[in-house]
Amino acid sequence: MFRKLTLMVAIAAMMTGVAGVASAAPITVTCPVGTYDRYFSLTTDPVGATCGPYGDGANDVSGSGDYMNGLGWSTIDKDENPDSVWPNDAWFSISPFNSSTGTFTIDPAVWSTYGTVALALKTGVNLSPSWASFILPYGETTGTWEISPGQNLSHATLYGQGTPVVPEPASLVLLGSGLIGLAARARRRKK
Hints:
By secondary structure, the protein is α+β, with helices and mostly antiparallel strands. It has 2 domains: 1-17 and 167-191; 25-166, no CATH class. Helices cover 21% and strands 33% of the residues. It contains 3 helices and 10 strands, in the order H-E-E-E-H-E-E-E-E-E-E-E-H. It has helices at residues 2-16, 67-70, 169-190, and strands spanning 27-31, 39-44, 50-55, 74-80, 92-95, 101-106, 116-123, 131-135, 142-148, 153-161. The strands form 2 sheets. It has a 5-stranded antiparallel β-sheet, with no helix packed on it. A 5-stranded antiparallel β-sheet has the order 3-8-7-10-4, with no helix packed on it. A hairpin with a 7-residue loop joins strand 7 (116-123) and strand 8 (131-135). It is elongated, with a radius of gyration of 22 Å. Mean pLDDT is 77; it is low at 16-21.
């Protein structure tokens, strides 16, 4: 009986996010989907990102009064080379510039301030689209990016929106006490 109770508690903990997340293969998301001159891809692990807003133009993701801000996103940081406008790269970094593929790293502290985070990539050559954003899975801090066909990264901007997700301890206590009650009832029925 103790084994069954332990198994039920372990399954419930995994379902509520208390236990560790099982590792899975990285997921690549391409944005936009359809007939375009250019595609942006982002690979994250173990949950894929979501294609967010994208478009044409040089100033849509420049970090100040841009398209994403108009949709309710707050600019957290912008990374470019040289990085003279947004020098606080403590929030995120992306590399290499003037390349068609690379990596990104986000400070985990970003997730304690925002419930949703998006990463926008911008090229230096204005094909359609010239920029695309990806809404990241909650808690994601690393991944890879690619711009095709063979276009180079000009800069990237990190955006945040909403409040962070906070696990509710009372729900876990309620779930655990319910499982213990079910186990006690089953034990009494057996006797």
